[in-house]
Specification:
This protein is α/β, with parallel strands linked by helices and 327 residues long. It folds into three domains: 2-110, PAS domain (Beta-Lactamase, 2-Layer Sandwich), CATH 3.30.450; 114-143; 144-326, P-loop containing nucleotide triphosphate hydrolases (Rossmann fold, 3-Layer(aba) Sandwich), CATH 3.40.50. It has 13 helices and 14 strands. The chain has helices at residues 2-21, 41-47, 51-54, 59-62, 68-74, 112-143, 157-170, 186-196, 214-222, 240-243, 262-271, 297-302, 308-314, and strands at 26-30, 36-39, 78-85, 88-99, 102-110, 176-179, 204-208, 223-224, 237-238, 248-252, 273-274, 283-284, 288-293, 317-320. A hairpin with a 2-residue loop joins strand 3 and strand 4 (88-99). The radius of gyration is 35 Å and the shape is elongated. The N and C termini lie far apart (116 Å).
Length: 327
């Protein structure tokens, strides 16, 4: 009977050892004195040691900075405790095992799954870092406006006055309306105003209202959430207003802005917040607006093609740029 019971007991031990050996995480069990009585194969493979060779050794001889023997003395479990093993940060669980009020062992478990996740995240982080480096260079090209006030051609009294007005406008955050024929350098003035402003270290974003199809213009300006409409990207996309945060946005050919889009632009200007297509929350946006037109906006208002309230909102600092023949 005793032999049968002993055999059953041994089988039970082997059964539990098999379970512990097949757990993905590393397992170590010590006695109350900190000596190892079980060491899983998974843990041994990770450390590059034979589990059989560490049985009977004190845990501190095998695992650096272990606290198994301390938990055996305090009786206080340590759950998800950070532990650095072989140069890797891991989460460890140390649980005292009690019987009849006495600690008879300490169960320790190293969470390899978390480490695997960390490695995966580290790989992703490396990829993201390379992408960030690339986009930072791209963003730097956006932030550095191409032209300064010195690039504006013309030394006549009229041009000197215009340059002075542009520099004065740069010191404010008010919208600037650039007017003039095609080819007079309205975009050059927009660059120069941004470069001379306190926002010069931040993006200068350009968009030609006449060059974007009407059905795409809203998503270009406001951006969209994933799945906002048929054909929308799975990751969404920030709009020009978001990209211009803390910088300047230059809207060329503003007279071609669709009538149905004009109140939305007015709202962004007045409330300093916007909503992506498909979004359920508002996004704060801080930018300086510079617009340009080769048409007379007052006539556009009279013709019903441009909202009067938006025109007055944009016409805070008008700059009429003369053609080259008059400079």
């Amino acid at each position: 009977m005793e032999s049968t019971e002993m055999g059953f007991f041994v089988e039970k031990i082997r059964f539990y050892e098999a379970i512990l050996d097949n757990i993905y995480n590393g397992v170590m069990i010590t006695d109350p004195d900190g000596k190892i009585i079980f060491f899983s194969k998974t843990y041994g493979n990770f450390l590059g040691i034979d589990p059989k060779e560490v049985i009977g050794k004190h845990c501190t001889e095998v695992i650096e900075n272990t606290r198994m023997h301390i938990v055996a003395k305090t009786g206080i479990p340590e759950i998800d405790h950070p532990h650095r093993i072989m140069g890797q940060d891991m989460d460890v669980q140390r649980i005292p095992i009690e019987m009849n009020g006495k600690i008879i062992a300490v169960y320790g478990q190293v969470m390899f799954k978390d480490v695997r996740d960390v490695h995966a995240l580290a790989r992703k982080l490396n990829v993201l870092e390379s992408k960030v480096e690339f986009y930072e260079k791209e963003l730097e090209s956006l932030r550095s406006s191409k032209y300064t006030i010195n690039n504006i051609v013309g030394k006549s009294e009229k041009m000197v006055d215009l340059k002075r007005l542009a520099l004065k406008a740069a010191k404010t955050n008010s919208p600037v309306l650039l007017l003039g024929e095609s080819g007079t350098g309205k975009e050059l003035f927009a660059h120069a105003i941004h470069h001379a402003s306190d926002r010069r270290a931040f993006p200068f974003i350009r968009l030609n209202c006449a060059a974007i199809p009407k059905d795409l213009l809203e998503s270009e300006l406001f951006g969209y959430e994933p799945g906002a409409f048929t054909g929308a990207g799975s990751k969404g996309k920030p709009g020009k207003f978001e990209l211009a945060h803390r910088g300047s946005i230059f809207l060329d050919e503003i007279s071609d802005l669709p009538l149905e889009m004009q109140p939305k632009l007015l709202r962004v200007l007045e409330e300093k917040e916007m909503e992506r297509l498909g979004a359920t929350r508002l996004t704060k946006c801080d930018f300086r607006l510079i617009v340009a037109s080769n048409e007379n906006l007052e006539k556009c208002v009279e013709q019903g093609r441009f909202r009067k309230d938006l025109y007055y909102r944009l016409n805070v600092i008008p700059i009429q740029i003369p053609p080259l023949r008059e400079r």
